[in-house]
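B., you asked whether I could sanity-check this one before it goes into the benchmark set. Here's the sequence:
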Amino acid sequence: MNRVYCQISVERWQAPVLEGTSIRLEPLGHQHLEGLWEASRDPRVWRWLPVLQPETKHGMQTWLDDALARRAAGLDIPFATVSQETGSPIGSTRFLALRPEHGTVEIGWTWLAPSTWGTGANQEAKLLQFRHAFERWDCQRVELKTDELNEPARRSMEDFGAVFEGIHRRHMLVRDGVSRSSAWYSVLADEWPDVEAGLLRSLHA
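And here's what the prediction gave me:
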């Protein structure tokens, strides 16, 4: 694939603010630093993320700068997950593994403050991202992956209808050298209507 063509294709994959009922996904920016720092203080937030928990606000700034650098390079599209009620960030998520030439993308790097767990914020964020990928970008496939041992995330993916594709053994090194095997899931374009219905049911339950 011609490199120039790939870059043009990636640039056409843009994501504005994605508005939901209880949350919205805002393109990540420096204005979100303070809120994300406050939302991320519980060590449970970082249990399954690839990096160690930032122990200082400067460390959180480094995390944010890295996310923005990856966006500038056309690698990821990161968001702050913002409460509609308070206007404050409660977490973050991203599109990554952008492959517009193949019509595929990954949803990942998702985390939320523990106070929002069980409120539907995660399901609504996924709904907004899937909807944008399938209905605006015309994707054929959306991927998700998590640590093989992350049972809550795996149950959540299976509950909304993502298909388990297998374990990539010793797939990556995380948190300064821990070897992680990754569980891979996906949703295909023709499966999206059923997945959308499942996410909406869970939101209204």
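One thing to flag: Residues 1-8 have pLDDT under 50 and may be disordered. Otherwise nothing jumped out at me.
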